Amino acid sequence: MRWLAFGTFDVERHPRVAVLIEGLRASGDEVVEVNAPLRLSTAARVAMLRQPWRLPLLAWRLATCWSRLAVAARRERRSTPPDAVLVGYLGHFDVRLARRLFRGTPIALDHLVSAAGTAEDRALAGSGGVKAKLMRWIDRSALRRADVVVIDTLEQGATLPADAAERAVVVPVGAGEVWFEAGAAHEPDLETPHDPGTPLQVIFVGLFTPLHGTATIGEAIAELASDDRIAFTMVGTGQDYERCRELAKPNPG
To answer: Which of the chain's termini has less CB crowding within 10 Å, N or C?
Structure first.
């Protein structure tokens, strides 16, 4: 089966799409990538919702990326038409372009997060406000254009509209093969008991979005300031980075 991975996704910021592509290839499918990264961080997208006058920047960048995507997609379609199209994560708008460019071709939308859920998570809109209604419309509009809706949990499926839930398939977030290779190369010795004189090493790796709960982790780090049996390492940066640092400040370790 020949897939075309399509959209403005950025695998460096959000590796979810890369994991899906890797999984398809591992299953024996061919995957061609038509990608023009939007190069907007999650924090930048959130800023646009808080400050609507920034939206023209999004429109300009999206139009620029779409023009590149359209040219590349038409080239692929003329060469060897794909059997299916995978629209990457954060593809709420990309799926519209994909539907226009690949009429009659099944389209799978990686709906890892909803626009409405993101707005609520970041306290950008109340449930009945204009912004919330706009986000829900964006979600519904994107879902209607997908033949298959890819989600990561059954619980997320329960939040979808009934017609979209019928077309949903669950694919856990997972990780790329490189992570498993790195883990195998540094396999811990589980047979030897932990040395009570050595601190337990706890590490977080992520983008510091509210969904990751880093503020709560920061509070926990502070509460354990007097416990030298546990050492924390926080890797990454993002929206809640400074807040997490401030909350964890009582624990210099």
So the answer is: N
- State how far the Cα of 120 lies from the Cα of 234, in Å rounded to an integer: 25
Indicate if 161 and 207 belong to the same structural domain. no
- Tell me the helix, strand and coil percentages in the chain, rounded to 5: 45, 15, 40
Do residues 78 and 141 share a domain?
Answer: yes
Residues contacting 23, CB < 8 A, separation 6+: 171, 174
Answer whether residue 176 is part of any domain.
no
Q: Write out pLDDT tens, residues 105-146.
A: 999 999 988 877 777 766 665 556 777 788 889 999 999 999
179 inside domain: no
Q: Is residue 182 part of a domain?
A: no
pLDDT in tens, 165-174: 999 999 998 8
Q: Are residues 14 and 42 in the same domain?
A: yes
CA distances from 28 to 23, 55, 151, 245 (A): 9, 41, 22, 44
Read off the tokens for 53: 């006058």
Helices (H), the chain: 16-26, 42-50, 55-79, 94-101, 115-121, 130-144, 154-157, 162-165, 177-185, 214-223, 241-248
Q: Quick check: 126 and 132 in contact, CB under 8 A?
A: yes
What is the value of pTM for the model shown?
Answer: 0.81
Domain span including residue 203 = 188-248
Look at residue 197 in the predicted model and tell me its pLDDT. 80
Query: Structural domain tally of the chain?
Result: 2
How does pLDDT run across 8-56, given as a tens digit for each residue? Answer: 999 988 889 999 999 999 999 999 999 999 887 666 766 766 777 777 8
Domain boundary among 117, 139, 170: 170
